[in-house]
Amino acid sequence: MVARLAARLAARLAARLAARLAAATLVLCAAFGAAAQEAHDLAGEETTYRLTVGDVVDFDFLDDDAPPLRLVVNDRGALQAPLLGAVDVGGLTMSEAVDRLRLAYIAGDLLVDPKIDLSVAAYRPIYVLGDVRKPGLIDYRPLLTVEQAVGLAGGLSTQTVSGEEQLLAEAALRGELRVIDADLAREAAVIARLRAQVMEAGAEEPAEKPAEKPAEALAGTSAEIPGGGALSYEDVPSAVRAYVSAAAFAVYAEGEAQLLRLEQRSAGQEKALLVSEIAAREQEIALLSERATNQTAQIALRGAELERVRSLVERGLQRSNDLPRLEREMSEAEGRVLDIARQQAEVRAEIAQLRREQSRVVETRGQTALQQLQEHLVAVDKLLARRASVEERVFLAAGWESERSRTAFSIETSYTVRRGRGAAMRTLSAERIAELAPGDVLLVSIDLPSRGEAAPLD
Fold first, then answer.
1. CA 397 – CA 165 distance, rounded (Å)
2. CB 447 within 8 A of CB 403
3. Structural domains in the chain?
4. Cβ-proximal residues to 306 (8 Å cutoff; 6+ apart), any chain
5. Residue 212: enclosing H or E segment and its boundaries?
């Protein structure tokens, strides 16, 4: 009995071992068969690659020691082969192109039995378009898949970010808001200074109606300027006051007040110089007028003397030799009066020019300040628009993070490949693991973000 049981147990163990060995053998055979089939498929893909416009190939005669020649398939699908010239290879596989070249050399009695090698030196690039971070050209490499091409293009343009990255992004946005607020405070101080200059120059720039502020909020927010001017928080545009406090304004107002004082000092010196020049010219006019009066009196005396001498000459009481001298002196005196009148006219013209310059200085100062004021008001509008955009991005980022923390999202991605040229172009749908061919156009599309039926995340 014991012997029978032992025999049965041994038989069962042997049967189980044989079954396991048979299963392992089948698995190994299947694996080797799949590998052989895959290798066959890859070899088939390599031999079915067809040359087209833009391919760069290395052409080599294996019968000599010369280095290979690098040739390009031109826009007519031809290669410029040595000794042959243009040979049409467009649409041919590599082996077909080699056969055509060999037959061309033999038919042309150029070579008897040439040994030619033709290999692709540079494939046509892949075009990756759509929802990727870096759309454009990427270099083709054999066995390049859709997934790899998307990775080389920077990945999908919309990807899930980690919580740490989200916090860093929000911190960067809030930092940008602080920079914008600082720029607004500086622009507010500049606008207050320019408005003070415009008011001093008397230019027509109506002050903006100040927003209602408590008295304590406006206290201590003016930088006093000697000479009647002041930089006041009330001169800040009302739209800016929502983001720029009186304290922030005061930080920049002192510097702008110093600029205003320097500008006032420079303008005052220029005005004083012009006033001094005008006063000097007016003094010169007074001196010339006095000289003209004296010369007129001299002319009157000489005229009387001339008449007296003429009377004496006519009565024979005096010789006529003195008449020419007196007439010459009379003419010279009249010439001096005319010269003084000319000098007076020139000085008056200079005074008029100086007064115009004085007026121009005042007007130019006001016009320049008004023009700069308009430019800075435009800059403020741009800063406010930029701030609103950043605020919206902060809000969206916070909302996205809040929504993502509650609900799972699914992103659907589709891949489309356009292959071929002209009428032979085909549009194919592709999976991530699909292999691409040289010259393919890969279009990546993302359906954003479709919220599925996923349950809330734990």
1. 11
2. no
3. 49-122 (3.30.1950.10), 123-158+411-451 (3.10.560), 165-406 (no CATH)
4. 323, 326, 327, 330
5. none
Of the candidates 81, 93, 85, 87, the one whose C-alpha atom is nearest the C-alpha of residue 51 is 93
pLDDT in tens, 270-305: 888 888 888 988 898 889 888 888 888 888 888 888
CB atoms closer than 10 angstroms to residue 382: 11
What's this model's pTM, rounded to 2 decimal places? Answer: 0.43
SS (H, E, C) 34-103: HHHHHHHHHHHHHHCCECCCCCEEEEEECCCCCCCEEEECCCCCEEEECCCEEEECCCCEHHHHHHHHHH
Give me the DSSP letters along 323-377. Answer: HHHHHHHHHHHHHHHHHHHHHHHHHHHHHHHHHHHHHHHHHHHHHHHHHHHHHHH
Residue type, 227: G
Six-digit token pair at 6? 């032992």
- CB distance 238 to 210 below 8 Å: yes
Residues of the chain scoring pLDDT < 70: 1-48, 158-165, 202-230, 400-411, 422, 448-458
Q: Residue 428: what residue type?
A: L
